[in-house]
Design goal:
The protein is of the alpha/beta class. It is built from 9 helices and 10 strands. Helices cover 39% and strands 14% of the residues.
Length: 237
């Protein structure tokens, strides 16, 4: 789970939402060097449903759809031929992170539809992250439904491709939200729950490994090769 790929500006808060381009390049190199197979979320879904994985599978996800994905992540992903899923907030496409700019202390540019279509044509997969990034359990049911379904429809209209995966903003969901995502036609959804994906997991509660500014090379390697993330999940952190 990535957010921004860039150098955090001076004075910004929530610095953990950034990964520097240099560190990102190392991480993508390491996945190849260590023999991991970078796959799409569809292949992860096949595994969850009982399929047998061909090797050690990794799916790369990027929340929010920042412009720095286009600038700093995409060239590296393209070089390695890695698939990726970017979860967009289509109601704010071409704008900025209105949902947390005050808390973050920075306004971050979001990709516009031209960039989205360019990347879609290049093989990047886009998922939905609601229209405006609200806490879905804290808004009226009708609004929650529109945030989920509207985001799917908007991205499909702009890219001409099916949108099959959803990402709960802030990891905030309950059984009602999850059911709405299913009924909207998504195949699965990602959370901020930490740990590895296992056979038989709920496709609408996919765990992820957070990669942050302080995920240095040794900690990145440790996250991938140990039960560290499982322990963190059990500790509720």
């Amino acid at each position: 789970m990535y957010h921004g790929i860039g150098v955090p500006p001076e004075g910004v808060r929530m610095r953990g939402l950034y990964v520097t381009p240099r560190m990102f390049r190392f991480q993508m190199w390491y996945l190849k060097a260590a023999g991991f197979k970078v796959v799409s979320l569809n292949e992860i879904l096949d595994f969850v449903r009982g399929g047998q994985p061909a090797g050690r599978l990794i799916a790369l996800t990027f929340d929010d759809g920042y412009m720095d994905f286009h600038e700093n992540a995409w060239p590296v992903l393209k070089r390695y031929g890695y698939p990726s899923t970017v979860f967009l907030v289509p109601g704010l496409a071409g704008g900025s992170n209105d949902w947390d700019s005050g808390k973050l202390g920075a306004r971050k540019k979001l990709m516009d539809w031209g960039k989205v279509r360019e990347l879609s044509a290049g093989g990047v997969i886009f998922g939905a992250h609601t229209m405006t990034h609200p806490h879905l359990t804290e808004i009226p049911p009708a609004q929650m439904k529109e945030e989920i379904r509207g985001s799917k429809n908007a991205i499909e209209e702009q890219t001409g491709r099916p949108v099959e995966f959803f990402c709960y903003p802030y990891g905030d969901y309950d059984s009602t939200v999850s059911r709405e995502a299913r009924e909207a036609g998504f195949l699965g959804a990602t959370t901020v729950g930490r740990g590895f994906t296992l056979n038989g997991d709920d496709p609408f509660e996919l765990k992820r490994i957070p990669i942050r500014l302080n995920t240095w090379p040794l900690s990145f390697i440790y996250k991938l090769h140990s039960a560290y993330e499982v322990r963190k999940s059990s500790a509720g952190r």
